[in-house]
UniProtKB/TrEMBL annotation:
Gene Ontology cellular-component annotations: endomembrane system; membrane
Membrane topology: Multi-pass membrane protein
UniProt subcellular location: Endomembrane system; Membrane
TM ranges: 31-55, 87-106, 118-136, 142-160, 181-199, 211-229, 250-268, 280-301, 308-330, 336-354, 375-394, 414-437, 458-476, 516-537, 582-600, 620-637
Organism lineage string: Bacteria, Pseudomonadati, Bacteroidota, Cytophagia, Cytophagales
Gene behind the chain: nuoL
Record key words, sorted: Membrane, Transmembrane, Transmembrane helix
Location (main, coarse): membrane
Name listed for the protein in its UniProt record: NADH-quinone oxidoreductase subunit L
Coiled coil: none
Residue span, NADH:quinone oxidoreductase/Mrp antiporter transmembrane domain: 137-424
Domain named NADH-Ubiquinone oxidoreductase (complex I) chain 5 N-terminal: residues: 69-119
Length: 638
């Protein structure tokens, strides 16, 4: 495996960032789009070549050393890349979906005055994301982890003339720092425990620990705090819905397909440690289930097209963590892949609608768009069916596999998962029907300008629609007479986990009839929800009431997102601001007091010394002679 080709995968987006970042004011828009997109497409091609080379070489991880980096005492941290099944899957998602989003952005952002800067930021984000998944140790992962957080801040607040957008960017940055502190403490504990941060060394030493070892539990909990921040789990989830302030391609790339899945990647990468800590996995599963249900319930009454998708993302991430909690590592990765397809498609489809509606995002002002935007409608429909878990689309296979593992692990969590699935189907079909069916509810001017998006935007939609429809066939369960190619491909990643916790990797105890029953239940609730949404919003043509109309107590609670933001604002933000103001006033008083005391003392002494300056030559000669006499006496006496 060529080191020079491998290093080009993250290096090409970095070069694209440097070219567009330095010359964004002078490079023509057409060239900016081509440079930024080609950098990512070339990375995708190299990723495919690396994938093929790895398959030809075997299934063992390949370490590609680049240079010696940090050496402190016995601790050595090389700058090297690790190529294995997990990093290759993430490479394909990041560069593949990233390429489509870059192509889409050429059309979507064409009229924006910050076009060049936007592509520079996108390229920089991909560089850090690729660094995150390619690094062979936790420190390189942390560099990428922090880098994507920085780029998220830049892209969420891209339209920085809007104060609300700046606040959203700041909120995302600060909340991620809370999680990152836990992640950093986890890395320090790994260094203390294992004397290394290299994955292969840490995981090899970890096999000597007993299941439930307190040190391993501490490490996994701290790492999970980092995952909670980056992957928007309770209680660190509120930044992601606000992050919809960024341009829609940003939502598709960062907040659907790549950055928010970094926490999932980190847990799967550390599967040996988590397999040794079942109590941590219980916490992971419970928080995942709570997040999935909580966010799905909020999505039921949202009217901003991007906010619905944002809470959907939080909910789907909860499903992934539910799978991880049941040690269904491959199933969670399966859902990461399918979610990248259909959620990127949903966001890009929403962007196409917003583009046609002259930046209108309220679904109450839409309706009847399927005739004006046929390609957007058809692709959005496919993505809606996929996320709802209706066969044979991609989301059915991945979500069903997670629910099957969760059912074996904990029946209560499975019930929560099914309830979340019911809500997901309802709010997604509600979004589809209110946007594309019925009569148009916008202004006459908006209706006059309705048109399908250009080819640069619709071609990525079509490609993602195909992937959303067919992507699930990489993991067809045995009960449906298929082969789970993804699970077979990822199996070598769990060799050490099988060694330390073999009982967790025994074949499923579910019979085929039980699996069919579970599939039937999940599909039935999705179809029932879709039918209910159809009756309400198509047959009865219901439209959500305007914000000015009074709501019931329960509706108000859900519509206002359970007032979690207000709770955080009162408990944390305002209290910290008050404390800061007190400390500022306290510090200002004492600092001024000390400074003013020195000023007055200096003024007093200067006044005394000034009296010695008489201007008389005789006085100065006398002072000089007196000084000489004093010095002589000093020397003679001492």
């Amino acid at each position: 495996m060529s080191a020079s080709l491998l290093i080009l995968i993250p290096l090409l987006p970095l070069i694209g960032f440097l070219i567009n970042g330095i010359g964004f004011k002078t490079i023509p828009k057409g060239a900016v789009g081509i440079i930024g997109t080609l950098a990512v497409v070339a990375s995708f091609v190299l990723s495919v070549m690396t994938f093929q080379a790895f398959l030809a070489a075997g299934s063992q991880p390949v370490i590609v050393p680049l240079f010696d980096w940090i050496t402190v005492g016995n601790l050595n941290i090389p700058f090297s890349f690790q190529v294995d099944q997990l990093s290759l899957l993430m490479l394909m998602i990041i560069t593949g979906v990233g390429s489509l989003i870059h192509i889409y952005s050429i059309g979507y952002m064409h009229h924006d005055e910050g076009f060049g800067k936007f592509f520079a930021y996108l390229n920089l984000f991909l560089f850090f994301m690729l660094l995150l998944v390619l690094g062979s140790n936790y420190v390189i992962m942390f560099i990428g982890w922090e880098g994507v957080g920085l780029c998220s801040y830049l892209l969420i607040g891209f339209w920085n003339k809007n104060t609300n957008y700046n606040n959203a960017a700041r909120k995302a940055f600060i909340m991620n720092r809370v999680g990152d502190l836990g992640f950093l403490l986890g890395i320090f504990t790994i260094i203390t425990t294992f004397g290394s941060v290299e994955y292969l060394e840490v995981f090899s030493q970890a096999t000597d620990f007993e299941i439930g070892d307190p040190v391993i539990i501490t490490i996994t909990l701290l790492l999970f705090v980092g995952a909670m921040g980056k992957s928007a789990q309770i209680p660190l989830y509120t930044w992601l819905p606000d992050a919809m302030a960024g341009p829609t391609p940003v939502s598709a790339l960062i907040h659907a397909a790549t950055m928010v899945t970094a926490g999932i990647y980190m847990v799967i990468r550390s599967n040996v440690l988590y397999s040794l800590a079942p109590s941590t996995l219980e916490i992971v599963g419970i928080i995942g289930a709570a997040t999935a249900l909580f966010a799905a319930s909020i999505g039921l009454l949202q009217n901003d097209i991007k906010k619905v998708l944002a809470y959907s993302t939080v909910s789907q991430l909860g499903y992934m963590f539910m799978g991880l909690g049941a040690m269904a590592y491959s199933a969670s990765m399966f859902h990461v892949i399918t979610h990248a397809f259909f959620k990127a498609l949903l966001f890009l489809g929403a962007g196409s609608v917003i583009h046609a509606m002259s930046n209108e995002q309220d679904i109450r002002s839409m309706g009847g768009l399927r005739k004006k935007l046929p390609i957007t409608f058809l692709t959005f429909l496919i993505a809606t069916i996929a996320i709802s878990g209706i066969p044979p689309f991609a989301g059915f296979f991945s979500k069903d596999e997670i629910l099957a593992h969760v059912f074996e692990h904990n029946k209560l969590l499975w019930v929560i998962g099914v309830l979340g699935s019911l809500m997901t189907s309802f709010y997604m079909f509600r979004l589809l029907f209110l946007t594309f069916f019925g009569t148009f509810r916008g202004t006459h001017e908006q209706e006059h300008h309705l048109h399908e998006s250009p080819a640069s935007m619709t071609i990525p939609l079509v490609i993602l629609a195909v992937l959303s429809a067919l992507g699930g066939f990489i993991g067809v369960p045995e009960a449906l007479h298929g082969t789970h190619h993804l699970a077979e491909f990822m199996s070598p990643l769990y060799d050490a986990s099988r060694q330390v916790n073999p009982s967790a990797f025994l074949p499923t105890e579910l019979s085929h009839s039980e699996e069919y029953l579970l599939m039937g239940v999940s599909v039935a609730v999705a179809l029932v929800s879709a039918i209910v949404a159809y009756v309400m919003y198509v047959q009865k043509a219901s439209v959500p009431a305007p914000d000015s109309q009074p709501k019931s107590a329960l509706q108000g609670l859900v519509y206002n997102k359970y007032y979690v933001d207000e709770l955080y604002d009162n408990v944390f933000v305002k209290s910290i601001k008050t404390l800061s103001n007190v400390l500022y006033s306290f510090g200002e008083f004492f600092i001024d007091l000390i400074v003013n005391a020195f000023v007055r003392l200096t003024q007093f002494l200067a006044g005394l010394l000034r009296k010695t300056q008489t201007g008389s030559t005789g006085d100065y000669v006398f002072a000089m002679v007196l000084g000489m006499v004093i010095i002589l006496f000093w020397k003679l006496l001492l």
